[in-house]
Design goal:
The chain is an all-alpha fold and 411 residues long. The protein folds into 2 domains: 185 residues, Up-down Bundle (Growth Hormone, Chain: A); 203 residues, Up-down Bundle (Growth Hormone, Chain: A). Helix content is 79%, strand content 0%. It has 16 helices and no strands. Helix 5 crosses helix 15 and helix 9 runs antiparallel to helix 16. The N terminus and C terminus are likely disordered.
Length: 411
């Protein structure tokens, strides 16, 4: 039986005639809440470790557990929830986020804390897998790049806010207060989503095997490979940005904080700019962003080191990479419009794998060549990724009526 029978046509894959912008903003709030919760432990490792009686390395596994669970959740959750109204699923993710933060705040041991972080990983991976698919059902096709840029602006805001917020609240009231604050953000998000999200009938087609079927479509595998290369290079760079800046210019803690704040602010601007660029030239945007990041990385290594110069290059890098999540989600929505959730899960798994590969590969290169070798190698990899995307990756285009052409143009 077709699940769409009892729902309005707009929820059954028919493009909406008017955009539901308030619902889009509620998804951006969800992104902000999820990213803030994911990154909080990074700024609270020392007090968490002391309070729980473990090493900082063990406390850091709170981030690792979330990332690993998110990888599998991105692949499995769309299929496991394929018969459920997507509105209810999204509200469920926000509820899991609230529960995770509250239970972490009151955890009595590291084991309990890690178990509670699993809940966040499920919400994180599940949300990312559905973000583009849900956006397609909230706005007309021509407005999709703008909607995605709004949704993913939550990444930049969360990245900028999470670490200083955690440090500030942790210093004043203890590390647990930061997670209580994150839970409060989740409550506001849940209420906003409850009010603004329309009913979104399940399509009932997402299954794990569908991910493989999507990957085998012409042009999809090479596109995902390009996505993995870009994210691997970025996280090889970003993981080791602090030792690089400290070793080249001797910047202090306050100066480093200001430079990273500039990176985050530029990242937010880049996320918003990406929407307009994708409307004009989606394929060109996919190529341009890794080119700019690669050039910035190489310039950081090859040009004479100075604080103003490195701050400007860091801002260029942040702005360019700000549009990467938007661009690849837009590519998925255009390339696989009939299986956007399964393709979204594939992107989640690819990005999470790239995070691990980038950090591990960067660490191996760091030990062999030093920090300069990390930036040189990752910068070259970023430019090679841009070349691959320019030569092999294709993006379907909208026709005059605003609908997407068949993905045959990916070949």
């Amino acid at each position: 039986m077709n699940d769409c029978v009892s729902y309005a046509p707009v929820n059954c894959g028919v493009e909406p005639s008017t955009p539901a912008w308030m619902a889009v903003f509620s998804l951006a709030m969800g992104v902000f809440g999820l990213l803030t919760a994911e990154y909080l432990p990074a700024s609270l490792l020392t007090p968490m470790a002391l309070d729980l009686g473990v090493s900082e390395a063990l406390a850091g596994q709170a981030v690792t557990v979330t990332a690993v669970v998110a990888l599998f959740a991105g692949l499995l959750v769309p299929g496991l929830t394929r018969g459920i109204d997507r509105r209810l699923v999204l509200l469920g993710f926000s509820t899991l986020m609230i529960a995770s933060n509250l239970l972490v705040a009151f955890s009595s041991s590291l084991v309990v804390l890690l178990l509670m972080r699993i809940l966040l990983g499920i919400a994180l991976g599940g949300f990312w897998s559905m973000a583009a698919a849900v956006a397609m059902r909230l706005v007309p096709a021509a407005s999709l790049p703008r909607a995605l840029s709004i949704i993913f602006s939550g990444i930049a805001v969360g990245t900028v806010v999470a670490v200083p917020l955690g440090s500030y609240l942790g210093g004043l009231y203890g590390w647990r207060s930061a997670f209580i604050a994150a839970a409060a953000v989740g409550v506001v998000t849940l209420a906003f989503q409850f009010i603004t999200l329309p009913r979104l009938a399940p399509n009932g087609t997402a299954r794990l095997r569908t991910v493989l079927e999507v990957l085998l479509r012409p042009g999809i595998a090479i596109g995902m490979f390009g996505c993995v290369l870009v994210h691997t290079a970025h996280f090889a760079l970003f993981t080791y940005i602090r030792p690089f800046l400290e070793s080249t210019t001797g910047v202090g803690t306050q100066g480093l904080a200001l430079m990273l704040l500039g990176f985050g602010a530029a990242n937010f601007v880049g996320t918003l700019l990406a929407g307009g660029l994708l409307v004009r030239n989606p394929r060109g945007t996919l190529v341009l962003m890794p080119v700019l990041v690669g050039v910035a990385a190489l310039a950081l290594v090859l040009l004479p080191a100075s604080l103003p110069g490195q701050a400007m290059l860091l801002a260029l890098w942040g702005m360019a990479f700000g549009g990467v999540p938007v661009a690849w989600s837009n590519w998925v929505a255009r390339a696989v419009p009939d299986q956007a959730e399964s393709a979204g899960g594939m992107v989640v798994a690819s990005v999470q794998s790239a995070i691990a590969a980038g950090a591990a590969g960067g660490g191996a290169m760091f030990s062999v060549t030093g920090i300069g070798g990390v930036f040189l190698g990752a910068g070259i990899l970023m430019l090679l990724a841009a070349l691959l995307i320019a030569l092999r990756v294709r993006v379907p285009v909208h026709n005059a009526q605003g609908s997407v052409t068949h993905p045959r143009s990916l070949v």
